[in-house]
Amino acid sequence: MTSHLHALSFDANDPVGLAHFWAGVLDRETTEDPYGGIALAPDDGTGLRLRFLPSQEKKTVPNQMHFDLTSTSLDDQRRIVERALELGGRHIDIGQLPEERHVVLADPEGNEFCVIPPGNSFLAGCGFIGAVASDGSQEVGYFWSRALGWPLVWDQDEETAIQSPQGGTKITWGGPPLAPKAGKYRLHFDLVPSAGSDQRSEIDRLVSLGAAPADIGQGPVDWAVLVDPDGHEFCVLPPR
């Protein structure tokens, strides 16, 4: 058995506003999520659902995950950047070198993302959201491969990447060193047990793979919070 990746969820001070920003950048429609909150549904069978949840916490440190958005030409890269800026994004400096051709931006709540120039062979065929690029160890890449049943498509020099068997966005981990964790992460995965499994059994399976239960103050809810081997929070939602 494996889990189904329901969504990548953002903690947001203004969930509606942040959803509309990303809807504009990605050219998607907003919708109500079946588990609550506002979402951007996938635009094809391999797309990544985004979910925006209310939070009072302000962003204070770089995220452990960011999008690498792909482009088809230098003009297309420029148009993507211009559209993001018009919608409320901004340029940021994270130490990128002048000769690097990707453009680093932040959305209106400071969530980092990159617009990658054309010709990136690693992201070829992955769609507009080419990758969710993550801080993480080789061990955590192996964990998520087993958790989701997604094969490893890169495993070299402690860097790993996985991708759905149907294709689409890759999830990558850059290997050590990892930044010290400073509070709850603002982005997390929401999982749903696959058909034929129940929530309790799936939680037990994920724990056997290296996850651990976590308390983030969620109280009595019908979803469970776990952390992966690197301490990244994620949620296991009940089947609907």
How would you describe this structure to a colleague?
With 240 residues, this protein is an alpha+beta fold. The protein has 2 domains: 3-173, 2,3-Dihydroxybiphenyl 1,2-Dioxygenase, domain 1 (Roll); 187-236, no CATH class. It contains 4 helices and 16 strands. The strands form 2 sheets. The chain has an 8-stranded mixed sheet. An 8-stranded mixed sheet has the order 6-7-8-5-9-12-11-10, covered by helices on one side. It is globular and about 50 Å long.
Mean pLDDT over all positions: 94
Domain count: 2
Number of strands: 16
Number of helices: 4
Structural class: alpha+beta
Layout of strands and helices, then pairs:
Layout (H helix, E strand, L loop, with lengths): L2 E10 L2 H12 L3 E3 L5 E3 L9 E5 L10 E5 L4 H13 L3 E2 L11 E4 L5 E4 L13 E6 L3 H11 L3 E5 L2 E5 L6 E4 L13 E7 L5 H11 L2 E2 L10 E4 L5 E4 L4
Parallel strand pairs: 1-4, 5-8, 9-12, 13-16
Antiparallel strand pairs: 1-13, 2-3, 3-4, 5-9, 6-7, 7-8, 10-11, 11-12, 14-15, 15-16
Describe, in short, the structure shown.
The protein is α+β, with helices and mostly antiparallel strands and 240 residues long. The chain folds into two domains: 3-173, 2,3-Dihydroxybiphenyl 1,2-Dioxygenase, domain 1; 187-236, no CATH class. The chain has helices spanning 15-26, 74-86, 138-148, 199-209, and strands at 3-12, 30-32, 38-40, 50-54, 65-69, 90-91, 103-106, 112-115, 129-134, 152-156, 159-163, 170-173, 187-193, 212-213, 224-227, 233-236.
